[in-house]
Each structure stands twice: as structure tokens, then as C-alpha cells.
Amino acid sequence: MDGSLTTFEKSTLLRVARNAIENHIHQKLLEKFNFDDLTPNLSSPGASFVTLNTIPDNHLRGCIGTLEAYQSLILDVQEHAIAAAFDDYRFSPVRVTELPVIRIEISRLTKPILLNYDSTEDLLMKLQPGIDGVILKNGIQRATFLPQVWEKIESRESFLSQLCLKMGANTDLWKRKQLQVFTYQVEEFHE
Prior knowledge:
- It is a single chain.
- α1 packs across α3.
- The strands form 2 sheets. A 4-stranded antiparallel beta sheet has the order 2-1-3-8, covered by helices on one side. The protein has a 4-stranded antiparallel beta sheet with strand order 4-7-5-6, with helices on one face.
- The relative contact order is 0.16.
- By secondary structure, it is an alpha+beta fold.
- The mean pLDDT is about 95.
- It starts with 6 loop residues before the first helix and ends with a strand.
């Protein structure tokens, strides 16, 4: 990330995400962008996750994103807003009646960095709860938790165990085998 997003950029991305979901559900064309009119933060490559929660209970309704930037941030948010609403395999597609109770959260990711560690104790000590998003990789298996997940899984041990489970592995794999571990941070904002 080159710099923090401005209030205007954040509100623009939230509007783009909301419009993308609404246009998709109503079978309308997606918003097109004139990249000459966009700020550098919005037009430059960026990696994002879009998370949908229901209000007032704050239950997860969808979350999809990417770990590596491959397109402009504004297009990334637009794409992942639609995917979070309609393609998250854990949930049925969002219905039009749900739109008023969906709250959109956007996480803009830094580039993941490989975390070097010598032992499970060293790994636990190097993780920064509430700050680090974590990617575990075991061969072709890979899973991530955004830093916001620390609010629900406070212990480092449980965090890694649940991440192994998400990856499709036994919960103690991180204790039994040296996995590739990457960390990243996010700039999170929501409606």
C-alpha cells in the first residue's frame, strides 16, 4: 500500500461495492470507471477482501477476496463485493429483501510477507493478534484469516488451529509440521 485511503476513497469504494451488489441482483450493468478521473490509490493495483455482515446481529453473510493485487483496487472491490454476495459457497446468494440489513466491510491488504520461524513457540511469539492477517500454506492447501478474526479467536493457538481446519487439515498440523506462514496487515473500513 502506498498510503492510507482518504475518507473520499473509502466512501467511493463502499459505494462501488454496494452498487455492484445491487446492480447484480437487479440484473443491471456494472458501473464503468474512467481511470483518468480516479485517484492513484483507486486506480493502482490493490488486493481486497469484501465482507458482508447482517445488522444488527453482525453475523457473517459472505466474505471473498484476494491476497495478491492483480487489478486496480476499485475493480477488485467491485468484483469481490459481487463474489461475497453471490459466490461464497458457505451461504446462499443474497436476496433482494436482505439488502437493507447487509453491512459492507472492505479490507485493503498489504503484500503478504513470509514469516520465518524456528519452532511452534517462535511462531506463536511472532504473531501479532489484532494486527496480522495470517496465511497458512501446506503444499497446494492454503487458507487465510483477516486480522479482524482475532476479535473472535483470541488465542494464538486457537487461531492457527482454526486456520488449519479452514485449510482442510487437522487442527494440530501447525504443531506437527513446519508450514509456510505469511502475514499481512489491512486497512479496514465499513458502512
